[in-house]
Structure formats: structure tokens, C-alpha cells
Design a protein that fits this description.
By secondary structure, the protein is mainly alpha-helical. The chain is built from 7 helices and no strands. Helix 1 runs antiparallel to helix 2, helix 2 crosses helix 3 and helix 6 packs across helix 7. About 20% of the residues are buried.
């Protein structure tokens, strides 16, 4: 015999109307990258349910929209801060598509230098940075795996990038 878990008022409301309201809710995150939209929506649902468990919510859809809007704003602000810190330089015009041996040697040295810098990072910062850059995990995925907040993930990635930037400028 399968026993269904007892749902709170908000959980029951969300599960009944969630798919109907999904398009409306995703419109709130329209300015967020598509892969991150679903993460924000899931995170907002979790936060709304947690808030409802602490104190019953009278207007669940209003709460969910407000949480989602705030998460989207925070996400956009974090992206803006990151983009201001790390501006990609334009690639120089190259006459030939093939890269010379010198380029490969320099690239290898830069990689070894970057790995040495990454090895000196505190353990948590290094783990977050590698999950993001090497494993291509989203901030929410990293946060869930490590049991930390997405803000903490963003902080660690930012600090890692600053450390890499400073150390490579010393080179």
C-alpha cells in the first residue's frame, strides 16, 4: 500500500496549478539565461514551501511571484557584477587558422600557472570553481551538492576569478 505524503496548503495549491501558471512564472525570469530560468523557478518553489511551513501563506501565488522576481533580480545583479570584473578581450586578427608551436608552449605554461594558482585556493573555493568551470555545473547545482547557498557559490567563484586575475597579472 502506497501512502501519499500530506501536502501543506501551499504545496497542494502549487501542484494543482503549477503547470497552468508555469508560463506566467517563467515570464518573470525572461531576462535570465534560459538554462538558469528553470533553476530559479525550482528554487523559488522550494523557498515558498519552506516559508509556508514556518508560517501559513494566504496568497501563495503572490509569494511565489515575489520570491521569483527577487531571485531573478539577484541573479541579474550577480551576472552584471561578474561581467564588469571579467571583460573578454578581443582576439587579434590571425592570418592563419593554425597555431604555431610557440603558442602551444605558452598556452601550456599558462595552464600550468593557472593550475598552480587553483591548487593554492582554499578547499571550498577550489571545489566550487572547478565544479563551475570544469564540470560546467550551474550555481544552483553546486549549491545543492555542497549544501550551501547560491550566493555563497557566486562569492566563491568571484573570489577565485579575482585570485586568478591577480596572480596572473604578477606573471
Amino acid at each position: 500500500m502506497v501512502v501519499k505524503p500530506v501536502l501543506s496548503g501551499l504545496e497542494a495549491y502549487l501542484s494543482a496549478d503549477f503547470y497552468e501558471r508555469r508560463r506566467q512564472l517563467r515570464a518573470i525570469t525572461a531576462r535570465v539565461d534560459p538554462p538558469d530560468q528553470e533553476d530559479l523557478l525550482q528554487d523559488a518553489m522550494v523557498r515558498a514551501i519552506e516559508a509556508d511551513r514556518k508560517n501559513p501563506v494566504r496568497k501563495p501565488l503572490h509569494l511565489l511571484r515575489r520570491i521569483l522576481r527577487n531571485l531573478a533580480i539577484d541573479h541579474s545583479r550577480a551576472r552584471t557584477r561578474t561581467s564588469r570584473l571579467f571583460i573578454a578581450t578581443e582576439a587579434p586578427d590571425i592570418a592563419c587558422d593554425r597555431l604555431g608551436a610557440e603558442h602551444h608552449i605558452v598556452a601550456g605554461e599558462r595552464l600550468r600557472w593557472a593550475l598552480a594558482i587553483i591548487d593554492t585556493m582554499p578547499e571550498r573555493r577550489r571545489a566550487v570553481f572547478l565544479m563551475h568551470r570544469v564540470e560546467d555545473m550551474t550555481h544552483l547545482q553546486i549549491a545543492r551538492r555542497l549544501g550551501i547557498s547560491t550566493k555563497t557559490v557566486e562569492k566563491h567563484i568571484g573570489l577565485a576569478m579575482v585570485q586568478l586575475s591577480r596572480e596572473t597579472d604578477r606573471e
